[in-house]
Each structure stands twice: as C-alpha cells, then as structure tokens.
C-alpha cells in the first residue's frame, strides 16, 4: 500500500457494507432486521435475537469523544513519521454504547497530527468526515462548535 | 463437585531472564520444564499431561521428545496470550483431578527480542476482524489499546499518574530484592517516573512491562501424590476463567461499560469456589502488562469497590512488607520479567512455600491472575 497505513479489507465478510458506505460519505451501522438493535462491530448474528437478517442504517455521524490516546514512537514507519498523533474513541449520538475509533483532524483532508493534543478533552463534540487513504475511505472526526 | 485443594503445584523451574538469549523458545521451554520436574523430585517418564499457551512456538510433541516424557494422555492449550497463564495451570489441575493424567506440566517460553514476536507489527496483510476498527488509525500496539481504556478510567474515577506511579514503584521495590529480576539493580523514583518518555499518553515508559526472553514451568499432581514429594505443595484451591459477555480482545470499547473488564466475571466463580474471600488474601500476583491493569484488577477481584482501585494503591498498599496487599512480590511483569504472566504463577508458589525474596509471613493463600483486557483466568493458591 502506497501510504504505508494499515488498511481494512474492502471485501471483509462482515464489514464490506460499512466501507462501501464510507466511500460514499455515509456512516452506516449494522442493524438487526428482526429486532432493530444496532450493533458495532458488525457480525453475522444478532446477539439479542439471533437473527441472521440485517440492514445498514446511515447515522448522523455526530458524537462525543469517549477517550483518546497520544501515540509516541516506536511505531510502524508510516505512523512514526506522524507521531505524536491522537487516536480517539467516539460515542455516537444515536446510541452512546456504539463507538468508533478514529483520529481528530482539523480539516476534512487534514493529517492526524495537526491538532494540539493538549487541547483534546473527553466530551468534545465531533462530526465524521471521510478521508481517502489509498483505495479506502476512513471515517475521521472534526470538532464542532457545540457544547455538551 | 469442584477441584478445590485436590491438586497442587509441586515443581517449579525457570531459565534466566534476558534479552537476546541464544537458545530457541523450544530449548528454553525444555530447560524450564526439566528444572520443574527435578524440583518436584519426579522423573520425566512420569509426566503424562501437558498444557501450554496457544501462542507457544514449541509444540507438545517436540517438548515430549526432547525432555523424554512418558506417554502423554492429556494435552491442551489456552488462547488469548497473557490471559492464558492461570488457565493452563487450571486445565492441568482439572485433568489431574479427573484422572485424565497424573503428572501434568504447564509452561510458557518466550523470546520477545526475536524477529516476528510482535504480532502487531505485521504490515503485509489487509486487516479483518476487530483490527480493522482500530489499527488503520494508528492504534497499533497493546499499549495504545490499553491507554485508551486507561484515559477513560482516569476520567471517570479520578485516577492520576501518581496512582499509576504507586504501582510501578511498588513492583520495582520488590524487584530490587529479587536477584533474578531484570530490574534487580535498577532503582526507580517517582521523579524518574514523572520524567519518563511517553509511549502512548496517558502511559509512559514505566507503565509498561519489560521485554523478556525466558521460560517458566510448573508441575501439577494430585494432593495425595503431593504429600509424598519433598517440596511444600501449593494447593490449587480455586480456579476460574472468563470471557465476559460481548467482550472484544484488548480493544474492548464496544460494550456498554468497557471498564467492567474480564476480572469481574472471573472473580465471581473464583470466590464462589473458594473458602477465602478477598479480605482474607494477604498477598497477590496481579497481571501487569500495563500499570492501569492493577487498579482495574483490584476492583474486579473485589479488594475494593468500583472506582476505588486507584485510591487503593496509596500509602504503600501494594508494597512488601507492611502494605495492605503486597502485590507482585518478585517484581511482576513490569520489573521482574514479562513472560506472558507465567512468572506470577511461580511467585505465587514461592509465597506458599515461604521462599519468596519478599515473603509475606504466614501467608495462607495467594491470588494469581492472568491478563486483564483479554479473556482471562485466575488461581487462588493455598498453603
């Protein structure tokens, strides 16, 4: 891979629709077609009702920083070149127990090390953006002006 | 029916701990197993049970052919890396207690300095499964994965770096009393800790375990057989494992309450099968790949209430000899050696034998735990 980043398999058995949605700018979450429960990460069977049927629902892409780290070397080369950089976990508005890991970026196409990590707080409000990396689109996060 | 006190650890063996040891992992495993059999006063031909970590590179057949073991009638392996240690001993104990074998060996050999010993550094393949949700974003190493939980824990419960330093300093003091510990001659001060370089904020260098080459092994027999052997038996009083509901290995961020880690479910069965309660336990060996696992484990195993694990570490509570719960009395993974937590099992046995370099006088029992943050296991050893 040109970027040197570790990337998902776009044909992953369970997650392919998520990555297809990301390429279209949609944050989609697997939802049980039988009982309606959302689940993350995606998987074949609903742990609530054991149904194998599911849909993909597009969410607002808004959420709150649940936790974060600031990674320092030693790291894989492509990542070490950007260190220190933040990694955040976001709790999604539609259901705070649905979480996604990503990076806090300053611009829709900004790098993962542009935000001063000392300004990041648990509880910061964020909105998803999708960044192209090689042949994939990764969900990343920008702060919004809202306060919680 | 439980296996309470029906089996005992009667032999322990360990190689030197180091970096860049010449011997292969298989050779290290055979050396440790051989020493453990000698320590028990048994013959290799009497060994008929083998339990190992599934991440082990040497296989049972190779071990048996090298050490000259007898006909093996029980063998098995336990998964999930550092979560496996107490599980391997527990499965061996169950096999002995149920007559599937008579003399069982459990072990772990590891060369952290060897090429390919870091599964997270494999950059060639596309990511599937759980990794695809975290690694593309640079959450690469085990320390990054635990730092994410640690930051949340610190936020929710008021844990500070001072609390994490209490953990690192206590284990270092114990290592400074243990001549075979990697950090035997290296003191650590609070100032050293506070000035250390970051690895993954909020965790610094001294919040991390060591990188160690080495191997350790134990021999398990029935309580009846143990009485005829020379070493003082460390009885396996209680044993439990857990994969808590909806758990995801290491990156356990997707459950309703990720800070209720695997310790909680493991502890319920462990204490249910035990004559002892947490308040009766005078010494513990808690899995410490990273310092924040200690407050999480103190809570999960019931030494304090939820959210009180950080405060528990104050006033030298983890320190030998006078702390409320001297913990990792040989130095643990952070200061003795990191062999996937198996050195904690051997230190538990030494506490029951009365031979620890930081011996808790008259300790009747010792809790030993395996990896928090992964499917886990625990043992309560009894004198």
- Report the major sheet of chain A: 5 strands, antiparallel
Mean pLDDT of chain A: 96
Biggest interface, CB < 8 A = A-B, 41 and 37 residues
- Percentage of β-strand residues of chain B: 15-25%
Q: Could you spell the SSE succession of chain A in H and E letters?
A: HEEEEHEEEE
Query: Portion of residues in helices of chain A?
Result: under 10%
Q: Into how many domains do the coordinates of chain B divide?
A: 1
Task: Give a brief rundown of this model.
The complex is a heterodimer of chains A (148) and B (383). With 148 residues, chain A is mainly beta. Chain A is 8% helix and 34% strand.
Could you explain how this protein is built, in words?
- Chain A is mainly beta and about 150 residues long.
- Chain A has two domains: about 10-60, no CATH class; about 60-150, OB fold (Dihydrolipoamide Acetyltransferase, E2P), CATH 2.40.50.
- Helices cover about 10% and strands about 35% of the residues of chain A.
- Chain A contains two helices and eight strands.
- In chain A, a hairpin with a 6-residue loop joins β5 (about 85-90) and β6 (about 100).
- The N and C termini of chain A lie far apart (about 40 Å).
- The model of chain A has no long low-confidence stretch (mean pLDDT about 95).
- Chain B has about 375 residues and is an alpha/beta fold.
- Chain B has a single domain (about 5-115, about 210-380), classed as Peroxisomal Thiolase, Chain A, domain 1 (3-Layer(aba) Sandwich), CATH 3.40.47.
- Helices cover about 30% and strands about 15% of the residues of chain B.
- Chain B is built from twelve helices and eleven strands.
- Chain B has helices at about 25-40, 60-65, 85-95, 140-155, 160-175, 190-195, 225, 260-270, 295-300, 310, 330-335, 340-355, and strands spanning about 5-15, 50-55, 75-80, 105-110, 200, 205, 215-220, 235-240, 285, 365-370, 375-380.
- In chain B, the strands form two sheets. A nine-stranded mixed sheet of chain B has the order 3-2-4-7-1-8-11-10-9. Chain B has a two-stranded antiparallel ribbon with strand order 5-6.
- In chain B, α8 (about 260-270) runs parallel beside α9 (about 295-300).
- The mean pLDDT of chain B is about 95.
- The interface between A and B is large, with 41 and 37 residues.
- β4 of chain A pairs antiparallel with β5 (about 200) of chain B.
